[in-house]
Amino acid sequence: VPAGGYDIVVRPGLLRDVPSLVATLAPAARYAIISDATVAELYGGGVVAAMRSAGLDAELVRFPAGEASKTREQWARLTDELLALRLGRDGCVIALGGGVTGDLAGFVAATYMRGIPFVQVPTTLLAMIDAAVGGKTGVDTPAGKNLVGAFHQPKTVLVDPRVLQTLPAAEVRSGLAEAVKHAAIADARHFDALAAAASALCEADAEALAPVIARSIEIKAGVVGADPFEAGPRKALNFGHTIGHALETLSDYGMAHGYAVAAGMVAEAELGEAVGFTERGTAERLRELLRGLGLPTGLPAGAEPSAVLEVARSDKKAREARTEYTLLARIGEVARSGGKWTHPLPEDLVLAVLARESEPGGESRVSPNDGTI
Ligand SMILES: NC(=O)c1ccc[n+]([C@@H]2O[C@H](COP(=O)([O-])OP(=O)(O)OC[C@H]3O[C@@H](n4cnc5c(N)ncnc54)[C@H](O)[C@@H]3O)[C@@H](O)[C@H]2O)c1
Ligand SMILES: [Zn+2]
Predict the structure, then answer these.
(1) Is the pLDDT of residue 366 over 80?
(2) In whole angstroms, what is the distance from residue 359 CA to residue 206 CA?
(3) Ligand 1 atom closest to Cα of 256?
(4) Mutate to test the pocket of ligand 1, among 63, 123, 124, 146 (most ligand atoms within 8 A of CB)
(5) Are 60 and 40 contacting, i.e. CB atoms less than 8 angstroms apart?
(6) Looking at ligand 1, which residue's alpha carbon is closest to its atom 27?
(7) Which of 14, 75, 103, 182 to mutate to test the pocket of ligand 1 (most atoms within 8 A of CB)?
(8) Is 292's pLDDT higher than 90?
């Protein structure tokens, strides 16, 4: 998949070819492979050994798994480790892991000696189709997530869908929600393809996932390429995320990102239908697909509409005081009006729709605990 200046390779079994791929696509005197402890254990040792037997100089550098490691403290510690290893400007960082690893190791690479090349080898579905594409790197601070960082594009992104076999099922589903989002904003046929392959996708079948991952990356890379610094078109990627982020925050990040986005997409489609931006029946089509993927379609129990609205209003990234929503025109297309990609909505309408979305929904509802990671 070409992604504006660098190649993204998606292939089941690719992991064993990482040495030859990096030697060609990101040649360097020395490689520092950065992984969290879990991924280092599962795949890091194998990759380092393969790199070395291919004659490449490689070191594995670890940090504790989890979002709690995406900090300036870990950035400093990893940077010091690379300095101790005497990695030079002719070195290269390989981020082998999920989105936390990509963001953290990418930020290390962005700042190390004013920036050295890096390669993304994402190992979660979310990282493959979202975090590894777009060039955003960074860390969290006590004031909020992702508040310190840099744009730093990888030399290449190498994706082996087979590594998803070891990923917990809830993490696979959470990533699938972003794939649904990509289809919903840009490609109606892809939306149908996801529905047709739903059960194989839930089982993390690598052959079924490979084309889905490739198409998702194409969509995200296309949007990002048209708008690298988030001036307009990139806002399409925010579909489902105004409500989704609020649900995630309200759950104190106990709710998996994708589960929150799934519920957010349905709510925002309902909002779009209510104001006439979105074709009727769109929310129902989303519900059907998300249900097939084992994702929630309504607000989790206990998420009070007024609390959701309050959190959405105080979202740190919102530039204006009012809350803006990315809305669909229909499956496969984002609604625009007056050249704008996002829309403010009357709060009483949002409250009414959220109240409807939080009614007990019987079998359409997935317990939010299923999405807790
Ligand atoms: N830069 C961006 O544009 C962007 C976009 C979306 C999300 N993100 C960031 O991504 C992060 C979330 O990413 P994530 O969900 O991948 O989290 P993560 O990196 O913490 O990975 C989730 C868990 O899965 C484990 N894991 C990873 N790969 C595995 C595998 N193949 N088998 C078994 N276990 C495996 C990890 O050790 C970790 O415990 C957040 O910090 C978010 O802000 C960034
Ligand atoms: Zn997201």
Answers:
(1) no
(2) 36
(3) 15
(4) 124
(5) yes
(6) 98
(7) 103
(8) yes
Q: What is the mean pLDDT of residues 101-119?
A: 98
79 token code pair? 């940077």
| pLDDT tens for each residue of 215-247 | 999 999 999 988 877 778 899 999 999 999 999
What pLDDT is recorded for position 6? 84
**Separation between Cα atoms, residue 137 and residue 64, nearest integer Å:** 18
H-helix segments, 112-205: 125-126, 169-186, 188-196, 198-202
Measured distance between the N- and C-terminal CA atoms of the chain, rounded to whole angstroms: 31
Residue-wise pLDDT tens digits, 40-52: 999 999 999 999 9
Confidence class of residue 365 from pLDDT cuts 50, 70 and 90? very low
* Residue predicted with more confidence, 325 or 369: 325
Distance CA 314, CA 359 (A): 25
**How many of the other CB atoms lie within 10 Å of CB of 269?**
28
Name 143's Cβ contacts closer than 8 Å, sequence gap at least 6.
Answer: 316
Q: How far is the CA of 178 from the centre of ligand 2 (A)?
A: 6
Q: What is the CA radius of gyration of the chain?
A: 20
Helix, coil or strand: residue 229? coil
- Candidates 154, 160, 159, 57; CA nearest to 108 is 154
- HSE (side-chain half, CA atoms, 13 Å) at 250: 24
Residue 340 amino acid letter: K
pTM here? 0.94
Cα torsion 335, 224, 148, 250: sign: positive
Cα separation, 104 vs 94, whole angstroms: 11
Return the amino acid letter for 185. Answer: I
Give yes or no for residue 349 having a pLDDT over 80.
yes
Task: Answer positive or negative: Cα dihedral of 93, 96, 99, 100.
Answer: negative
What's the full length of the chain, in residues? Answer: 373
- How far is the C-alpha of 141 from the C-alpha of 137, rounded, in Å? 14
- Give the position, in ligand 1's atom list, of the atom nearest the Cα of 66: 20
Q: Give the distance (Å) from ligand 1 centre to CA of residue 277.
A: 34
